[in-house]
Amino acid sequence: MAGSMKNNKYQTFIGLEVHIHLLTESKVFCGCPNVFGSEPNINVCPVCMGYPGVLPSLNGEAVRKAYQVAMALNCHLNEKAVFERKNYFYPDMPKNYQISQFEFPFGINGYFELELADGSRRKIRIHDVHLEEDAGKMIHEGSRSKLDYNRAGTPLLEIVTEPDLVTGDEAEAFVQQFRQLVRYLGVTDGNMEEGSLRCDANVSINEYGKGLGTTTEVKNLNSSKFVKKALEYEIKRQSKVINSGDKIIQETRLWDEAKSRTSSMRTKESSNDYRYFPEPDLPPYRPGADFLEDIKASLIEFPGVRKNRIIREYGLNEQQSLFVTSEKSMADFFEHTVSLKGGSDGVDKDFAGMVSSWLGGNIRKIVNDSGIPLENSYLTPQVVFSVLEMIEKDEISAGIGKKIIGIIFRDGGVPTDIVRDLGMDQISDKGEIKKIVSGIVDANPKVVDSIRNGADKQIGFLMGQVMKATSGKANPGITQKLIREKIFEEPK
Ligand code: ADP
Ligand code: MG
Ligand code: ZN
């Protein structure tokens, strides 16, 4: 097993509890808006504030998204799922209980195929997938605490793994790959800064072959990097404790990023402490056959599968395909752009390669420099298709193409109009280009000599000089031809 590191004295066991905020319009048991960033305490009603006598009603969209995840994680779906009350007093939970699922969650006994650093895959078992409501938010200011109940009652899906992960690196990779999957599914935005994806990390160590040790849990990690760092810290801390002859106390700990350490928060409660019992105001949920068929049909192709198909169908290499499938929106953009070119004889692999290198190169740079995500820009597959086609047909140079894409990205517009309006029209006049080529060739005798001696690639250098002299407007095909003529056909 990767990471078990036999040179290490102890075997490590890591299990994660990942919470994701589901993207729904309203909260999970009432009609309040489920949005982030509102003014405090405006998205509340008697139901989510726990007034006496109110009744919860289950949000169908949250259920649908929960089942999409359970199915994507290959879970067995309980015929009858039961909501239960998890009783505890917390100031951010006005009802003094949380509606969750315990004995019969939506999904159990699934697995997630984790891609490891060496490219191999290992199944990480999923204990269960259950739906619950989130608590409100406490804001601590000095000696006072403020409460914002906007988040109370928003739909939270919890995914619990078995303790199958063995290193901090693996746990980090799990969070990253799982996040990619649920973003692909469109069930959450996975925004870790806003707390849309949070993680509790459980870890124990033990001598080899002795099975699970006593676990500690690090709560509320909101970055995959912190998951890794907190676990690596805990593994070291636990080894030290055991080496010194002491015992690990089962407890809940917190990660302090500033100090790069965990500290004890409380001894861990066991499920008995919560006095779970079935929620009397909600009937058990029995998913119908049609509903499940529908969910199944809605499941999109997963990132890893799509990456491999794109390598096969479009002739991209592993790295290119990894990049274009990093986000669903990017993969859709790529395939859409290439399809606009498609003739009757299938995919144009050269064009696909060109699209991929533009997405990963010039376009990525525009996205990074502007800070605007591709899907929020004016750039569409149609625009990229027509610009790249103009480049392919030598109607414009790559440099001009880049400028056009940059302009449309920010301001919108039609490529051919921009070419005309900005006077980017190509210089195709042979006489005019010939004059410039002559000047460049004469000014670079050493380069010309090396080309004559076989360094054909150096022609690219001269092309670049001509483009520079013409602000990228010289027709590349004609230019190249004239350079060759000048070097190889004219007498020295
Ligand atoms: P609960 O939160 O109800 O106490 P468990 O403790 O059974 O549930 O499991 C919570 C998480 O802790 C799971 O992800 C599980 O894989 C992990 N876990 C449980 N026992 C251990 C252990 N001994 N070592 C490491 N991880 C563990
Ligand atoms: Mg727990
Ligand atoms: Zn409400």
Fold blueprint:
Blueprint: E1 10-21, H1 60-72, E2 76-77, E3 83-87, E4 97-101, E5 107-115, E6 121-133, E7 137-141, E8 144-148, E9 155-161, H2 168-185, E10 197-207, E11 216-221, H3 224-243, E12 251-256, E13 261-267, E14 277-278, H4 289-298, H5 303-314, H6 318-324, H7 328-341, H8 349-360, H9 362-370, H10 381-392, H11 398-411, H12 415-421, H13 430-443, H14 445-452, H15 459-469, H16 476-489
Parallel strand pairs: 11-12
Antiparallel strand pairs: 1-9, 1-10, 2-5, 3-4, 3-14, 5-6, 6-9, 7-8, 10-11, 12-13
Helix pairs in contact: 1-4, 2-3, 5-6, 6-8, 7-8, 7-10, 8-9, 10-11, 13-15, 13-16, 15-16
Bound molecules: adenosine-5'-diphosphate (ADP), magnesium ion and zinc ion.
Adenosine-5'-diphosphate (ADP) is lined by residues 13, 15-17, 160-163, 202-204, 212-213, 215, 271.
